[in-house]
Amino acid sequence: MTKFRKNILLIGLATLGLGTAPMLALANTGCGPMGGGSAKFAEQIEKRQAQLHDKLKLTPEQNAAWKTFSEKMKPSGPRNRPDRSEMASLHAPERMEKMLVMMKEHESRMTERVAAVKEFYAVLTPEQQKLFDEQFSKHRRR
Question: Which of 120, 114, 142, 116 has the alpha carbon at shortest distance from 132?
């Protein structure tokens, strides 16, 4: 049973890390919602979206899909992180339950983003899809 719990914890932590990576990759900044500049973070995202919009050279028909896409990709606001002192006072099973709730929130948000990317990607031409793929792969390499 102990090995099972360790595996669940490791899977949970890995999922939590993977859930936050796309947001950080999209912004590609040194500061995030927790790093001392959520206004700067939002500004960087808007700048990157404007650059992507310009590079894609969207048609007027594609702009509606772009607007929907960019709205769904915006950060959802400050993360719902529990207080460290509160977490320290909890027993291990209770902490795990809190972590599981956080992971489910991250998973839900990531699912919404995947759907937004798929919907937008479907309206792009093959050339635009190639540019879009290049932009996302650049963010993943950094």
Answer: 120
DSSP 88-111: HHS-HHHHHHHHHHHHHHHHHHHH
pLDDT, tens digit (0-9, with 9 covering 90-100), for 25-67:
444 444 444 445 678 877 888 888 899 999 999 999 899 999 9
Distance (Å, rounded) from C-alpha 29 to C-alpha 110?
Answer: 19
Residue 81 main-chain phi, psi, to 5 deg: -90, 135
Q: Are 44 and 77 in contact (CB under 8 A)?
A: no
Tokens 């102990």 belong to residue: 2
- Apex 38 CA angle, 70 and 48, nearest 5: 35
Neighbours of 106 (CB within 10 A): 19
Residue 126 DSSP class: H
Token pair listed for 51: 């650059």
Task: Give the HSE-up count for residue 112: Cα atoms under 13 Å, Cβ half-sphere.
Answer: 16
Number of residues assigned to the chain:
142
Q: Where are the alpha helices (DSSP H) in the chain?
A: 2-27, 38-56, 60-73, 84-89, 92-122, 126-141
Q: pTM surpassing 0.90? A: no
